[in-house]
Amino acid sequence: MVESKLGSPPRTKGRATIRDVARLADVARMTVSRFFTNPEQLHAATRARVAQAVDTLSYVPDRAAGSLITRRSGFVAFLLPSLTNSNFAAIAHGIAGTLRPANYQLLLGNTSYSVGEEERQIEQMLARRPEAIVVTGERHSRRCTQLLMNAGVPVVELADLPTHPIDLAIGFSNREVGRIAATHLLSLGYQRIGAIGPGRSADSIDFRGEERLESFEETLSAAGRRTDLVLRHGEPPVSYRHGALGVGILLERESKLDAVFAISDLGAVGAMMECQRRKISIPRGLALMGFGDFDISTEMVPTLTTIAVDFESLGQKTALLLLDVMRGKKIGETARITNVGMRLIQRGTTRKVAD
Amino acid sequence: MVESKLGSPPRTKGRATIRDVARLADVARMTVSRFFTNPEQLHAATRARVAQAVDTLSYVPDRAAGSLITRRSGFVAFLLPSLTNSNFAAIAHGIAGTLRPANYQLLLGNTSYSVGEEERQIEQMLARRPEAIVVTGERHSRRCTQLLMNAGVPVVELADLPTHPIDLAIGFSNREVGRIAATHLLSLGYQRIGAIGPGRSADSIDFRGEERLESFEETLSAAGRRTDLVLRHGEPPVSYRHGALGVGILLERESKLDAVFAISDLGAVGAMMECQRRKISIPRGLALMGFGDFDISTEMVPTLTTIAVDFESLGQKTALLLLDVMRGKKIGETARITNVGMRLIQRGTTRKVAD
DNA sequence: GTGAAAGCGCTAACAT
DNA sequence: ATGTTAGCGCTTTCAC
In degrees to the nearest 10, what's the CA dihedral of A236, A241, A245, A251? Predict the structure, then answer.
């Protein structure tokens, strides 16, 4: 006979509580609690009785109640601009997969590339007391930065490398993307080199394309080339259509255009399609390259030259870093920024014109 | 002077609680609570004082604590097989967007097309006491069905139409997809018609492809055609590569193959690429069609004939339905299943050979 | 190995 | 318009 044997009648409505299980197994609530956190501690017979009761009632512990006292919500928040972009989906997958064995759950928030949405999402997330927050991109509104700094939990800025991270940063340099792309096209001897990326929009938080374009431009300039074929049009996110339109605009601007870098494979693929419609052969008539190494890129005819970052592994590394920090490991100043790098994958769309 | 004026010292560590705010604003905790749920009820001056305190302390209410007593977690669980598939991403986007104004948060779970993962995810979700659960696909393990039926909250089975829904169902019929595809190809007079879909795998919960293939097969049979060109190979999820390999296998099996239905646009696009590599002209040498109306499909040259379902709107409808149910609206037996239908979009990859 | 008391941060219900 | 009491479901802590 134990504490809660007498009292309220058995519940019939709603989910069973730890009380119901305790009553049915004729043990204290604490014993039921231990059944989940430290089953070996229980006497085999007790354990069996509790297991039976848990099963009968289909009992699932309420983590919200538990976390109130343990102060561990088991949530990690991840804010991304778009679920539709498979690079972000890959990161999310990497994080979630690595966090699960440690019994953490990913709380996904979609900012739709909007500053306002990012703020709203961060507040929503904070209400759930995440044990860590992962945000995408490097620039955030004052208020976002404020909220993140006051969050009192590890914050990771992902997929871009800020010079002054709020806390932790892991990713790659978008400026390096532009530089590698320009260097590649220059080294192959292309003469009239263009690029396609998005323009600036008021509420956007996505500057990744712009950074790729800027450094691309700078590298061209440094080589003494014209930069008027670096096209900014439309708004992020870019798309197949964006690339198709872009190459059209560029060809109008310079009919002898011989190479184009699109800030995303999506745009590059769209440009390839447009070239097919215009009977421009690739890479003979026009060389193309992108960024992201999307699935489609290896399937294209010819295959698309691109710059690849392993996003799934980026997500995994992020999760491992967070796991360390959440377990109390201290991170030195130098280890706050991790550059995972990238690699140029030369494929069929950028062969030398006369090779 | 109020209840909590005396007591523990001001907190310096961790997030502020409602107590801290109440103390700073010199009001009762309830007043702070009301500031968030029903601000108009407060005297303007009081409201201002509370607002000030909230701001000073960067206070964000802890929803876990609140939901413990309101019994409203504010979560809706959504289990999908893959984030990378843009159709599912579109559904998730539709649900999340429609739910947000009502202050619900989507809890996303990735099952990776695996039964075991689905069970694990459902348990994880239940521990968060979601107010509704949305699952994808129609077949679930015994245990999953059990868990869902005992959940005590609305359950929506999405993107497929089961004959006996656990609770609610909304989506379309995969059998109809196969039927429409076969009918379309037959009506155009194609003679040697094939199809490409995944085989069956042990742990998979994804039978959507199989259902499309089955009804496709049946429709061919009913028209007196051969069905040995309906190819099942590989495992879900399908991909560009899957389609490219598939069309290769089919061409080996029947060199006069003149039309192919891929159960996903991804496969159809892959097949198109393979044809390009083999110098098979489309649709003259081979007609192709897919399902899903992915972004890429309108960009292909020629554009891809497909069957479209508006997934974003499917997500929105799901959310609206759930909002109704969660607000206590009763749903009649007949209204438990919603068929959102689909439409055939004839584009460039299926023109009559001699038109 | 097991139990009882206390309390996490919040709000429903009932005062005033 | 504001305050007080009680308690949501769980775990920490200490007792046995």
Answer: 110
